[in-house]
Specification:
heterodimer; A: about 110 residues; mainly alpha; 4 helices; about 75% helix; flat; B: about 190 residues; elongated
Chain lengths: ~110, ~190
Amino acid sequence: MSLKKYIIGFLASIALTLLAYNLVAGEIANGLTLLLLIGGLALAQMVIQLVYFLHLPDEMKPRYKLLSFGFMVVILLIVVVGTLWIMHHLNYNMMEMSPSEKDHYMSSQKDKGF
Amino acid sequence: MKQAAVKFTNYKSSLGFWIYLMTDCLIFASLFATYIVLLPGTAGGPGPKDIFQMPLVLTETLILLTSSFTVGLAMIALSKKNIKQAIWWLAATYILGVAFLTIELFEFGVLVSEGHSWQASAFLSAFFVLVGTHGLHILIGLIWLLVMVIVLLRRGLNSKSSRQLGLFAMYWHFLDLVWIFIFTIVYLMGVAS
């Protein structure tokens, strides 16, 4: 735990936050590229804060904190990805239409909201 | 030998608290999943693009980030047994935390007064629950911080209070970490074209 680490973490976090904000505000990229870019910046900032603020790599062996963090990430991915996957297919399969009609209906309904 | 025993007790309690934080992450994970699923459910009302005031949210983000830094500075002061300096940094953290919460409640107040409350649509319900749960964590953190400052002023620094302050710092850094994802997924991705 040193002052230098906190300053590095703080400055890097501010830089990443402002970069993500300006990517969106300045409309430098768009669509999927933009989403992937700002998602990547958020993950980078998470790693920086885990290292410089929460000192995760400094833990002595056995690394139970790292282990429980990894376990949490696995459950988190199952919950989030699983939910999105299921709910998308549920919306798609609950309609009594032919597949081509469904595609047309889904795209026409996309902007309306339910 | 005594030093090693204290170190082990500290590690045990910090590991226990860490595991609690991991389970808290799972609460947020389910709220994020709910939010993303209900995002198109605007029921003819406003979507994310129509209601978010991005400059305000950026200010909120920078305030919380700075408060995460000041709590780190307080921990450094404590490790040097400089209680007076630590209390100043903890006070700075408290003020920044209150500022963050005030801006968030102001944002909620504007939304409700414009008729976009949590009752208006599925999207708004999910938004208020996700962001509100984080805000509730901040509120609990502020109460905890106030208690810790009072303990520090009245009883000074001992092995118990330094351990508890270490846990508080962990909690506060963790809330900053969750906010990065709220900022990115809810706000930035919400207004991104």
